[in-house]
Sequence to fold (292 residues):
Amino acid sequence: MKPRAPRTVGIVVHSGKPDARRRLSELLEVLRNHEVTVLLEREAAVLAREPKLARSLRDIGRVASMVIVLGGDGTILRVARELEGPATPILGVNLGNLGFLTSIHGNRLRGPVREILHGQYEVSPRHTLQTTLVRKGKRRVTHRALNDVVVSRGALSRIVRLRIFVDSELLTEYVCDGMIFATATGSTAYSLSAGGPILVPTSRALIITPICPHALSNRSVVAGENSVIRCQVADAAAELLLTVDGQVQLRMEVGDEVEVRRSPRTVQLVTPRKHSYFEVLREKLKWSGANV
Fold:
């Protein structure tokens, strides 16, 4: 089915990025030339000096047919986590270095945005993780992650012991610095730097990657899309943290468990029709072919 041309667009801006004000002005000009209704998150409204258009992100998610994010991958992660209502498509415009979640660069936003406003775009559904902190048998708090969920030690350099269960069956006990649970989208983030595999964005699998394991035979494990992973803190001599998408942190204790499974909700990322994930992968990872 052909994507619909968006008629109400919400805008989120990372005002600390270079050229944020100028790129926002360009975007507003293009949207208004196409008679698109514009809603600005509060930070964007301040930057644009249009306080009457200010809305909360939740309100924008309920009424907008698309959200355009000016910033970087971190800003998109925040928007994806906080956005409520239907699965509103998100278009990322990068204001810094090349990102994996953004599909347009700020220096060249006019042409691609015009095409998208005419319905010439594609939507890439990204699967998310649902993670729940369990303490003394009680489910304390649940969060959703687009990239990853990380169990790691705090400031002190002390190892931890983590028991990993996959669908109630013990996988093994890791002696390590921590554990990463990543989606296919997050496979090119922290998990990759810890030695994990790269999965194409459409994969529904879940990656389990230990951080600096003491046993050299410990490697990443790719679990199925319907797997339920439990990570039990068997021992920790220092502070332990649960981090969701690098932005939400919760303190953990010995005996705590983290339950990770695929969330029923997806994040809809907008890409221009000529956008190539593998081209971004080659450029971001500086793959240039053999040197022989």
